[in-house]
C-alpha cells in the first residue's frame, strides 16, 4: 500500500454512543429541501432539490449519494431533469408525450452527474459524482442540487401543508435514515449573484436525514494502537476490535498485500467484509498514536493512519481526535487542522465549551 487516501469515518473511541446522537456533532444532519419555482395547479411543478450537509465532519464520498423517494400517487412523473438523473426510466407507455418523460418510476432513485457533463445538463451545485463535503472541510461544497419538472395533478391552491409530497426518502449511503414525511417550511431565500436582491421560492418542502454508526454497521470501522518513545512495548489494537479473525468464514481476510485479480468486484468497489488484510483486530482502518516526545512544556505525537481495506480508496478524509490535553495545539505538520467546537447545551444546563481537535488532509505517501 504505497498510496493511501482515506477518510476516517468516526473516531474509534466513539463506538459506544448509541442511536443517531453524535456528541461531537449533536446537530449534524443532511437536510433535503424542495424549492418550488413554478407551480401549475393540477398540472405539475418545477422544483430544485438541494441536499445540505449540515454535518461538521462527516462527508459523503464516492460513489456518492443516490436519493430515493416514493411518489404519493401514480400521477407523478418526472418530465425532465438537469444536474442529476434517475437511474431508471421505468414504464412510460401510458404517456404519449414526445420526448418521453425522464422517469415514470413510482419510487425513483436519483444520482448525481459526474463533473464535466455538458453545460446544458448542469445546474448550480450539481455534478460532483454525488460527493458532498462536510461543513468543516469545505462549506462551499457541502451542498448538492438538481432541478426537475414534475407532472402532478395536485392543486396546491386548494390544499395546504406538504399535501402531495413524496415520502419514504433515502439517500443511498449506509447509516443514514430520513424522517418519514416532508414538512412545509419557510420558503428558502436566495441572493442572486452579487446583486442585493433576494429572491425566494414559491414554496419549500423539507425532509431531514441523520446518521447513526450503528445503522451503518454494528462493527467498528477502526481501532487505535499506541506506543511511545520511552517504551519498547506497543499497545496494539485489541484482538477482535472490529471482528474476530478466523471466525469460520473462509476467505474473510487476505494474508498477502496484493489480493489476486479474481477478487476484484466488477464495479471496482469491494465489500469491506472480505477485503481487509488479516490482522488480530480485523479493522479496515488502523490509527497508530506514537508519543515522540513528552517534555514538561509540550508533547508531540506522530499519528499514522493505515488503510487495510484493499478495495477502498478514501479521499478527503478527516480524523477527529478527542483528547483531554489537546486544548492548545501549537503546531501540526503535514495536515491542515481545525478545532471542532461543540456546545453540549443540555449538559446540566451549562454552556460548557468543549473543543475537539480535528485534522483534515490527504495522505499520498506512507
Ligand atoms: C439539522 O441541521 C440544522 C443545521 O445545523 C439545524 O438547524 C436543524 O435543527 C437540524 N434539524 C434536525 C431535525 O436535527
Ligand atoms: C385549484 O383550487 C382552487 C381553489 O379551490 C380553484 O379555484 C382552482 O380552480 C383550482 N385549479 C385547478 C387547475 O383545478
Ligand atoms: C420505499 O422505497 C423503496 C425503494 O426506495 C420501495 O421499494 C418501497 O416500495 C417504498 N415503500 C413504500 C411504502 O412506498
Ligand atoms: C486505489 O488507488 C490506487 C492508486 O491510485 C489504484 O491503483 C487502485 O486501483 C484503486 N483501488 C480502487 C478500489 O479504486
Ligand atoms: C497556548 O500556547 C501559547 C504558546 O505556547 C501560549 O502563549 C498560551 O498561553 C497557551 N494557552 C493556553 C490556554 O494554555
TrEMBL record:
InterPro entries (UniProt xref): COB_C (IPR056900), COBRA_pln (IPR006918)
Keyword Signal set for record: yes
Residues in COBRA C-terminal domain copies: 221-340
Gene Ontology annotations for the cellular component aspect, listed alphabetically: plasma membrane
Record key words, sorted: Glycoprotein, Signal
Signal peptide residue numbers: 1-20
Protein's GO biological process: cellulose microfibril organization; plant-type cell wall cellulose biosynthetic process
Protein family (similarity comment): Belongs to the COBRA family.
Protein name: COBRA-like protein 7 isoform X2
Origin species: Dioscorea cayennensis subsp. rotundata
Classification of source organism: Eukaryota, Viridiplantae, Streptophyta, Embryophyta, Tracheophyta
